Amino acid sequence: IMAATSVPQLIAYAETVGYAGYRGLSTAGPPLFAWGVATGSPWMNAGVTSLTAVMAKTDLGGEAYVAEYGEEAYVELVAAYSLYVGVASMVMALVGFGKLAQKAPTAVKTGFKWGCELGVLSSALPNGLYAFGSTLKKNVATSAFGEVVKAVKGVVPGATGVSGVCNILYAVTNPQTWDVVAALLFISCTLFVMKGKAYLPKSLPPGSEVVIATAAATVFSVFYGYEGGVVGEIPTLDGDAGISLGPIKIPVEVMDIKGLLNVPIAERCFGGSMVKLFITAAIFSAINFLSIVGIASGFESDNNVSWLAPRELIAQGVSNIAAGAVGSAPVSGSMSRSLVSRMTGATSKLACIITALLWIYMMPYMSVMSPTPKAALSAVIVSAVVKNVVMPKKLLALQGNDFIVGVGTAATTAITSPTLGFGAGMVMYILISI
Which pLDDT value is given to residue 347? Predict the structure, then answer.
């Protein structure tokens, strides 16, 4: 069940990272397998999430990098970054960061979460409301919002988030520029994913509404000749590629690890500074781990499932190293997939391992997703965040200094980047607390 309901997310989040959607399918298995081996939780699942996708894209300047060096070079860059995030997670676990992460200020976490969710929304809208995402970006570049982007980046060069914020503002204020078919697909799928569960049989597992909406959009694309952006061709794995374990052949394409270590990530993305790269990877790891803390703490309070912070941080490190080895973006704990695992009655982490193997061995049959409209996949992403973006109840519930810190963190995260936003939030919290 979890393997099936997660497929649309895997494709959608790969698009959010900034490369072809099929890569989300082809690289999802190994990180989850590694997570299943290392974690101590019977239910918690890991993978690329909306948060890790948008953070990786902003930290690495995804769009600009692809435009200058091409998608294949960008895949290597993302994979290398996953390796650094994995190593940082392992080091942080050894120095005791796991327990410290549980004490992060609520105001900072709340504001950071809202800022990231706005970033997720901005990454999905171009392919949701327009037949091709590039249309919105071109329109923004030639509008007054384009001048705002230039002005902000002139003051803060690392403010990659301002482009997304301006994309949202332009799209919302210029509905006449939307593609009618793409927008109708996007809006109808979003509404169904958000509200459809109430009208479906109770016997269906959580996430069924996602599968139904995506399948319906795919059928529409095939029979009515949808001309907007689609997932596209899903390449088949080279017959000689894969990992051989005696008589068993695992169809996974492993990247050249030594080659990844030579990827000029520091030179091209971090001003030539390895120190800045390691600090950014460490912040990424810390923020990632907050998701795991939230999921594990919820299971502990609801189901009395104990957990150890150092072990789960090591599991994060191991799974990110596996992610880098196969060309995946950084991974973290997935709340939706973890809840599905609990709902289906999983009793051990073997459920993770089986799901990972299903993703790996079912890859040759995933060409059925090739005609799926990107507008439908954008709906899957937007449905997960739009409610809290429009009405951030937890952010608005903060009071006094916490409200100032929360809003400041949210704004900084949205306009600049998740890494800068979280750092700025911590600085604000410390200064106000003195």
Answer: 79
305 phi and psi, to 5 degrees?
A: -95, 105
71: alpha, beta or left? (left if phi > 0; alpha if psi -120 to 50): alpha
With a CB cutoff of 8 Å and minimum separation 6, the contacts of 361 are 251
Question: pLDDT tens across 400-434, in order?
Answer: 999 999 999 999 999 988 878 888 999 999 999 87
Residues 6+ apart with CB under 8 A from 329: 13, 14, 17, 48, 52, 53, 56, 78, 81, 82, 323
How many angstroms separate the CA atoms of 160 and 414, rounded? Answer: 9
Higher pLDDT, 197 or 401: 401
Please state, in angstroms and rounded to a whole number, the distance separating the CA atoms of residues 23 and 320. 16
**Closest residue by Cα to residue 41 from 314, 361, 412:** 314
Of 68, 161, 74, 180, nearest to 118 by C-alpha is 161
Alpha-carbon distance of 15 to 137, in angstroms, equals 15
CA atoms within 13 A on the CB side of 121: 24
Instruction: Note the helical H segments in 226-373.
Output: 257-261, 265-269, 274-303, 309-326, 335-343, 350-361
Residues 6+ apart with CB under 8 A from 370: 230, 231, 232, 233, 234
Quick one: average pLDDT of 148-160? Answer: 88
Of the candidates 329, 332, 328, which has an alpha carbon nearest to the alpha carbon of residue 294? 332
- Nearest alpha carbon to residue 168 among 130, 194, 214: 130
Query: Which tokens in the block code for residue 419?
Result: 């890494």
Q: Which helix (H) or strand (E) holds 203?
A: none
| Residue 230, strand partner residues | 373
Residue with tokens 């990992």, as numbered in its chain: 243
**Dist CA 65 CA 49 (whole Å):** 21
How far apart CA 383 and CA 191 sit, in angstroms, is: 8
Other residues' Cβ atoms within 10 Å of the Cβ of residue 214: 25
Give me the residues paired with residue 243 across strands.
Answer: 250
Burial class (CB in 10 A: 0-12, 13-18, 19+), 348: exposed
Within 8 A by CB and 6+ apart from 377, the residues are 8, 11, 12, 15, 21, 127, 214, 231
Helices (H), 48-105: 50-60, 62-69, 71-94, 97-101
pTM over 0.85: no
Angle at 311 between CA 308 and CA 317, to 5 degrees: 140
- Two tokens, residue 371: 């005609």
